[in-house]
Every structure is written in C-alpha cells, then in structure tokens.
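Researcher: Hi, I'm a grad student and pretty new to this. My advisor asked me to get structures for two proteins we've been looking at. I'm not sure of the right format, so I'll just paste the first sequence and hope you can take it from there.
Model: That works fine. Here's the first sequence with its structure tokens right after it:
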Amino acid sequence: MKRYLNYINGEWVESASGRFAVNTNPATGEVLGEVTQSTREDVDRAVQAAKQAQKSWRLVPAPERAEILYKVGELLKERKEELAQILTQEMGKVIEEARGEVQEAIDMAYYMAGEGRRLFGDTVPSELRNKFAMSVRVPVGIAGFITPWNFPIAIISWKSLPALVSGNAIVWKPASETPFIAAEFVRIYEQAGLPKGLMNLVYGSGSVVGNAIVDHPEIDLISFTGSNEVGRQINERAGGMLKRTSLEMGGKNAVTVLEDADLDLAVNGIIWSAYGTSGQRCTACSRIIVHEAVKDELERRLLERIAQLKLGNGLDESVDVGPVINRSSLEKIDEYVKIGLDEGAKLLCGGRIVTEDGLEKGNFYAPTLFTDVKPDMRIAREEIFGPVASIIPVKSLEEAIEVNNSVEFGLSSSIFTRDINRAFQAMQDLDTGIVYVNAGTTGAEIHLPFGGTKGTGNGHRDSGVAALDVYTEWKSIYVDYSGKLQRAQIDNY
C-alpha cells in the first residue's frame, strides 16, 4: 500500500504520531493508500524550516524567483494527463474536468512567473525639493494555507505561486480527502529546484493541523478556502493575533434567465454550472431564477438534458457526472432534498442516492431539480454543495436581481438575455464578485480576481494581480538629498 508522508525542509518524513489514515476512491470505494497524520509538533517543525528559508528567499531577485515558477509550469504541462488521472481517482470529478483543472495550474504558473518582473510599486513626486518618494512591495513572511478537496491542484496554485514569487515561504495543510495530488504538486516544486524549506506539506485533520497553523505565532498570514462556518472561526482567532487572513467561503450562486434569453444556451450553461463536478464547486449554480414567461419551457428542456446525463467513474470518458466526495456529503445532500420537499418545493427529477448499475460502492447522487421554490426556503438560501438546483420564478429583471442578492453569499451570478441594456443593469446591480452574461456561473480565468462579497469572503482575492495584495506589504521609502532637515507639511507651506 502506498504511504504518503509530510514534506518538511526538503525531506519526506513521517509524523512522530505514527498514525496513518486511509484514502479511498469515491467512485469505487477502492483503497488508494494511506497518509501520515500529523501533530502540532510537525507543524512547528515546518514553520521553523519556513522561517529559516524565507530569510534568504526574500533577498532573491523576483525575476530569479520567477524562473522556478516557469519550470513548475513546464513540469505541470509534461505531467498533465498523469496528474488529471490521480485527481479523478481521489476526488471523483470526470477526467475532462480534471484535465481542465491541471491546465488552470499550468496557466497560473506561467502567469505568476511573469509577475516576477512586474511586482510594481510607485514612484511619485515629493512635495519637497531634492527629495525622492516611492513605494515597493515586500513579502509578508510565512503563509499558512488550508485548502479544500474540490479543486485540489487549482486552488493551491492560486495561493502558492503568488506567495512564492513575492518572496514568502509556505506551510500547507491540504484537504484530508485529496492527499495524493498534493504530494505530486509538491514533488513538482521539488523537481523545479525550489530551495528546501520554502514549501512545507503537513497532512492531518483540521482540528489538529489546521488549528495549529492558525494559532502558530510565527505564521504571518492565513489563506483559507472552505466553509463559511470554519472561515469565520479562523478569522476570529487569527484576527486576534493580528494575522492577515484571506478567506474564500463558498456561494449560493444563481443563473437568471429572462424571457428574451437564448434558452438552448441557457440550458447548456445551467447543466454545466449545476451538475459539473457533481455540484461540488463554490461557483456551482444552485438557483435558477427564471422569468415566468419561459419557466415551463426551460423546465422541459432542462429535464430532457438531465435525463441524458450519465453517472459513473470519472475515469470513463463517457461519464458526465462523477461521485460526491464521501458518504457524509452524500447524506447531507439527501437531507437537503428532504428539507426541500418538507418546505413545499416540487421535485422534478433526482432526489435520491444512486445504488444501482454498478454504482453501489461509490458515492453517487442523482442530478436533482426542484421547481416552484420560494426565495426564503432553505434550499434556496443555504449551500448544499451537491448536484441540486432550484427553479425560482420571477416577474421581472428587478425582482430577479432582488432574489439573487437576498442570500448571505455573493460569489458568482449569471444572466441570460439578448437585451444589452438589461445586461448592463445586471452587471451593475448583481451583488457578487463575479458576474457572467450569457454563460453559467463557473469558469473563472486566472488573470482576473477570484472571490466574492458578503459571506463569501473578507475582501481579499485569489488569482490575478489582486492576489499579490494578499502576499505583499507596502513599504513607502523617502530619500532626502537636500542636505538639510525638511519637515513634510510644515516646511513646504
């Protein structure tokens, strides 16, 4: 059986606990291997390694740091298919999606490598004679990462690549459900020549390893992607230590379909957004806000397409929908379906755990569609994180925007319309960090900021140039070559 170990200070090491956890394939129940379970002491060793390595790494010119990121991109590209296969085996998403996720990491590596020559500051005119004024970016120090299982290589690429090119060191706890792809990602950094101590991988539970990262006094920054509940707890504790926190905490995303929409295009966008990755995306569409004039026709077309979706092992190229991650997620999804029925929503299809056709050993849930859902129902307000979508009828664009904005999350939204005026009104008034016009709620590109408003996050962004603001501090520098004391705001007036 394969055993996966921590990576601390450039070495693969077993935790002193001596304990291991089993990792399984969510599509088949097959045991894939086991993973060391770490302690607070393991986290501290990783922090000390990171602290020592960062002292010299911050002095390496950013273009030189970037050369390693270019190598990471090349290695990811060479191993794209192998990494996609590993990702699908332990997370379950269909292989086409897994390839797309690895490509996202490739794109991010090249993009952030380019930022090695664009860590721009500002030079500004001083208000005093013979004085020079400028600002520069400097690294924060040690970044602690806590990442989820649904995009196990894309999300760590969003975080680690800008952190490293900015001159920081890393201590990373990946999700317990996806340890193998984490190890392979670290091996790519190792192969690319990243100096030891800059990337440290510590496996274990959130209650032990996650808490140890959040609480460690020498970790300067916490970047977390996960649930709103856990994110709030992290923010409270880390904030009490004056640590910077970057939080991305999910969504309750809606696709709005107006009466003038291209319904075939809207159906394509909804199917991909709601049932791709089995609904296990923070950007997944779980609400369909539709104008009452086209509601019946949209329902008919959606049911026709949903009936054609094939469930199965994501390694099968013909499969459209893979498993959900584990049994507890399966049961949570099923519980939400029962809540929807109790609330009076009408179930059009799905609504059950799938145990036939050779799928009984996996964690499969039938793609589910509710209709006549009211905006205040729990299934229309709470994140389900599964292949469940709810149709909410409205009478106007204004009502659609109000319904869209009524939930506590604000990650992604979408509108289908042929009217340019209404499209721009939606772009202005939809209260989400990401807005799509005539596309679904998912499919972000790496060169724009990723994140949301309200309960989705705390104002920071992954991806794009905005990510550099998470991993750098601003330093303002003044050089006075006048040969005398000049007092700003006093001597210039």
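Researcher: Oh nice, that was easy. Here's the second one.
Model: And its structure:
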Amino acid sequence: MMNHSLKSQCRVNPGTVIEGKWHRNCYTIMKELGYGANGIVYLAKSQNQQVALKMSDNGMSITSEVNVLKSFAKVQGSALGPSLLDVDDWERRKGRISFYVMEYIQGPDLLSFIAQKGPSWTGVLIVQLLNDLESLHKNGWVFGDLKPDNLIVTGPPPKIRTIDVGGTTIQGRAIKEFTEFYDRGYWGLGTRKADPGYDLFAVAMILINTAYPKRFSKSTGDLKQLKLMVRQKKELLKYEGVILNALQGHYASADEMRNEMLQLTRSRTGQKCASNHKIGQTASRQQAYVQKRKKSSFIETVLIILVVTILYFIYIYGQLI
C-alpha cells in the first residue's frame, strides 16, 4: 500500500498539465487510474493520444520500472507490459517528481471479462498468460505482484496483457511487492524469493479467484484449505491437477504448466466437438427416418386411392350389366 505522504505529493487534479523538464513533452491529466506502493498512475492525453502516466517522488523506483519495460521491449513477439513512451521529471513548487509515460492498455480486467464472456475463456487466457510469463522468466525476471487487477483483456481477438510492473523483480532477489491472496508466503507454501514458481503459484490462485470473484479469507491457511476450495467449485475441478501442482511448486517452468493447461483446453474442445458430432449424427438419423416415413406414407396413400378407384369402377360396371 502506498504511504499517504507519497500519495499527497503525487496528487494532481484533472486538467493539470505535466511538462517534462528534459524532453518538454506535455501531458494533460484526465483522471487517476490507480496507485500502489511506489506511485500513482493517471490517464493523460498527449497530442490527441491517450497514455498512462506514472509519477513518484522515488526516482529509484521509476528507474527500476523503466528498466523492466525496456527489458520487456526486447522480448520479440511478446505482449508483456505496456510500451514505454517517455521518461522525464516534472518541476513543481513542492519539488521534483519523476514520471514515465506508457501505452494505455484499454479493456476489462481478467475477472470482469470472464464474468461477461463466460468461464470457457478461462483456459484460453491462462494459456496466453503462461506463454508471456515463460518469456519473462527466460529474460531473468519474475512479475511478482501478479493478480487479476494487473491483467487486462484487449481485443478483438481477446488478448491478455499485463500492466503495473512495479512488483517485477530480478530472479533471486526478494519480491518487491505482493498482494496477500496471491502470495505463497501468505499461505505458508513457499518463500518470497523471486523465482518462476512464485508467479506460477499466483497463476493458480488467479484460477481459483475466477470461481471466487470476491476471494475468501484464510482459515487454516495451508494447502488443505485451498484444495477444499477447489473441490467445492465444479468449474475448477477440471483444472484441479494443474492448480495443485502449481500451488506445491511442482512445475519447473511456465511452459510446463502451459502445456498441461493446453492439453486440458484441447481435450474439452475435442469432447465438445465429439459430442456435437454425435448429436449431429443422431439428428441426421432422425431426419432420415422421418423422410422415410413420409415417403412410405405417400406410397400407402397412392395405393389406397388406386384400390378405391378400381373398386369404384368395378361397382359401376356391375350396375351397368
């Protein structure tokens, strides 16, 4: 949580124009998007383009986050984090405030998207997330503060994007920022050392969170409680094995977890297609049966009319004789 003094120093009203001391780019503040331990993020406008601007009086924090975004930019074909647009200082009477400007990623957060579109999207989006985490981990970083609030779904087509890189930490160091519900240390299931398993634990908790949008309180605070919560929701049962493996740190990489999720997603899609095919075959047989019955009924009608006509003519002929 951000301290009140820092938030007060970085608080600006909508309409405020931020001018960079070095690059002289101007940004008009529109509204606050959120705040964390190291600064406040605003929606701003620059030359008719909407951007996200983060400011902090902690220059070291800004430098660290900028380095993370620069590192992300080197990962080819990845949608990790927003694009970095500018880095500068803002001189004001209260003192100098460091800020950086990044791409404004629009869309609902992960839980809102799933609530709107349905749980069938859960597996698809988690597979995308794990693919991006694999790239991040290979480049020596751990996201750290991974949670649905930091995951935006853009599109179409739907694509998951990560925002707020303030918790991103170099592997081997202590996690800088975390949210208790997604933190393995909070549940007594591991340390707060930055390693790939830390992020994968958070992914498992995000999966659980999709079935418990308001989350739940810690009671025993161990694997037993989390296992019980998983088994109480039918939408989580299909992912139970993957969730438990991630909670216990059994995956060596995000790619390994991704492959298992992918198999589950494909398996369910295949079962659905097979089911639809079976239904289609049944419908075809029923249609053929109906058509056969219609054809048979038509022939029977023609024969009856023919017999009645013959009998009628025999009767008339008998009368004439």
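Researcher: Is there anything I should tell my advisor about the second?
Model: You could mention this: The longest helix spans residues 254-320.
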